[in-house]
Amino acid sequence: MKYLIIFFTLFSFSINAQNVLKFDKRNVQCEDKWVAYQMDKDSTYMFGFIYIDAQAGLTLNYEGKFKIDNKGKFNRVENDVNSKTGFIIARLQPNRVAIAEIPESKFKELNIQKTPEWLKNYKSDENSVERLYNWGYMYNGWNECEKALTFLEKADKIDPNYKGLQTELAFSYNALGKYDKAEISLKKAIAQNPKDCYTYKELAFTYTNTANFEKVAETYKTMSKICSEKVFIQETAYNLAYEYYKIKDKVNFKKWKAEVEKWANSDSQYIKNLIQMEIELSK
Description:
alpha+beta; Serine Threonine Protein Phosphatase 5, Tetratricopeptide repeat; 7-stranded antiparallel beta sheet; elongated
């Protein structure tokens, strides 16, 4: 019976901890949040505050460890961080490791503030177009396009002509399947800079995903005249060839395969993939 009581005590503690901390977030989803990492072997949780440094990117302000007692209380353990600063700065790479957002109800137990005093040093010019664009650009780079739009659309209201903004907006819209909005933004971008090859590549992507193959072909023709970035031209032709492959249009597939071959080396992955598609179409 003694062992059974111990078992239920441990089981109850485990359930309690799981209810308090929900490990359902990734680090790129936790800007300006207090977070905890999965429990260590010694039953402690590492915790800190995630924020974005304009130069360094995603950053963790590591502040130590805590344990959760059988009543669900968070108890900080003896401080193991830098004795002079009280914390350690760690640059983060976006990953899929599950972390937990610490509930605000536990801040007092950990002796932390919802918004650390030092964070104000990183919050200057929050509503400037430059900052909004940079944050949107970063989140797009992390494939957090919906979050990116929260910054980019604010920037668009302030200065729609800010360099690179419309193309960055279109990247988000394309990723989220909002192709009508992407096309509008890309046409604005082309009006501002009619020789930007990356913008044309995004426009071709928009038309490809709306099955407007004639406009893809027109965009490709423009790119082949003005672009020095061959990889964008290859990608555009390849994507169109792939679309024709999917609908088993052998004539147009062959036509666009030939276009890819104009720009790609024989050992490129594009060519290898197209050869395999051609074999499949011939069966």
